[in-house]
Predict the 3D structure of the following.
Amino acid sequence: MATDACIAAIRAAAPTRQFTPDELVSITEEVQRQVREQMALGKTPRAAKATVATAMQAEAKAAAARAKWSAYNDILKMADREAENRPAYAMLSDTGGGTTRNYATSVENSHKALLGDLLYRQQAELKAAKVDKRVLSRDPVWENKLAAELDRREDPTRGPSTGDKSAEDAARILGKTLDASRAMQNRQGAFIGKVEGYMPQAWDMWKARGDGSEAAYAKWKEIFGKNRDKDFAGLLPQQIEAKLRGQWQAIKSGVFGSIGDAGGHYDLGARVSQSRTINFNTAADWVAANRAYGIGGIADAVSAHADRAARNTAVMEMFGNKPKQLFDALREKKMNAAHALNTEAGNKIGDALKASRNSSLFGDVTGIHDIPGDHRISTINANVRALSQMIHLGSILAGGQALIHIPLNAMAHRLTGGSFLEGMATQLRGVFGKDQDMAHAVHAGSDALLQSTIRRFHSDDGSVGQRMAGFVNSFYKATGFSGFMDNQKGALGVALTHYLGRAAGKTFDQLDPRWQTSLTRYGIEAPEWDVARAFAQKASDGRMHVIPADIADAGVARKFQNYVTGHVAQGANEPTAWARNVVVGGTRAGTPAGEIARYLTQFKSFAVTMMQRQFGSLLRGGVDVPGIMLLASSAMGMGFIGGQLHGLLTNQHQNMPTDAEGWVKLLTDSAVRGGVFGLLGDAMLRDGMRSGSDVAKQLVGPVGEPLVDLIGALNNVRQGPGEGSRTTRGQEAIEGVHKVLGDITPNFWATSAVYNYLFPYMVANTLHPGAVQRHQEVMRKNNQSWYIPPSP
């Protein structure tokens, strides 16, 4: 069948469809491949073409039906979004306060809730089957068996049984996650069919890219170009080569299996429905490829697959099958409507919608900005910043800085049916991590499960290598911070569902007004409340609960799960996509501007988030004066306690002030440590980073701190000791080296305590006479004393 004739036939079959040249070539090649396949089975050319034509006609009808449904769905989505009284960009990520005070539904929150639905259920089933530790061990020998069972889970004829029940159970559970991921996307407009022997497609773009050369492609092709009979059946050699090169390009660019180019007006439902599967002949072939170019073990691949599915679903749920097109159209309509008001407020809204940052935020939320400009630059710098986390945050728990999360979570209780004091008591008990099974039932309390610990301290970084990410997460486990945060989030999540169950006998209008506002922001009003409260029952902790997963109405269940997920994120002060976007100015990783922004603003997303989430909630519907006083006073109190714990590590404590100046200094220091002014990120850093004399360090960010100290030391050595000074150039150099080493040494709580109690002053005084006395004078001015004075 001539190519021109085939193209003409395609156009005749779909006269209203405007095909791109690439689509026409792709369809033509597929038709020709299928004809050759039929001929290889013994059919005449005419019979082969007739068979393929019949199949293509059926597929065309199905595609037309899908397109019609998609168009109708997009119309409904646009109507829904137009009816909402908030700017288009606010639907991407809850911006807290201002024009979005009555809404909290967002792509970002839905993404997180959907991912929780998949992974918490999976974790519970793996644990019940007693294979959770086996799966997470990533043992190569056992994973071979797991892959084989995953490959044959629906068709036992695909290979022999391994005879390993644990592998069979794990494959069944992980397979359910893959099936659920496909189903949730199909419900929103995708049409993803089952693929025989489907294995998760989670390829590492950095490994595939290598140095981007032909040699890197040849190395990749050595594995992916063989043992794929089904993928290559009926294709000519040049077509196989074109397919392989296209897949390599898609994988190394990060587009393969992803949401795609968020800058284009593509049909997302159709895009995720397209075949983006690399089928190997056997599970062993897939395992070999995954070990060479995958993101980790099988559990990692399944989690990455679930994450993409959750994000795709959240985007389509909010913006339909053509999300960027609908978003742009909606933004333009709302912008014009705002300007048409001819008021100052309207003009501000219109200008905000017009800002290019909104397109950047769309890229952040949909994931396209996870793909950096230059992967090598991005990866190197992201790993440096990850190392900076360990240098600066090793004592985040023992040093008391993490305690601020207790009152922040307690404030969330106050908005959701509890009281602040009840919240403080709950969160203090939660430090010890009780009711973790209940926490998982309500999808709360496992940063490690959702692999989100490392992202808490990044402006955006998704470029951290797998090995470094694992190392940093292990580091936070060692510090106790991961466990502390999981326990805090779990305690809040369980309390939220308990408050729902406790109030099940009340009607919606009988609830506290603040609580009604919190529920309404997630689309929960009297009808949804009446549906949900009918499912109140005693849970394993002996108290009444309304657990979202138990609610029979799927739509209502989703709203309540979003409500729980959103408030847990608020209590944890997790940076939103909006906050991260603001902090880095909408720049992209791997670009000069993007990397500079990320270095200068590392940890600063906490400051923005504090103002957005915490104070934003207190300005919603009017100024909540009692709430502001509670938040400020409790944060200051935790800042004071944190300062005392920090003193234990640094071998110096704060004396009680004896004058007004001392009290002002103590209260100010406690307020800054507690993040009262939204400076939570700075409060996590060392004292020097908060002092007014170290403005240069504040400007360059924590990674630049050693450079500032090094420059200062070199300058001191160059200038030499001042007049009347007893120091020498050599001693100035030693002091400078000591300072720089302190900047780059991880302040893990145990080593920090040993260092501060046993080492520095004795050595410093030997090398630099008078160092202890001078430091003691500084401490006296700051009203501080040593716990254990150093030897003179």
The mean pLDDT is 78. DSSP finds 39 helices and four strands in the chain.
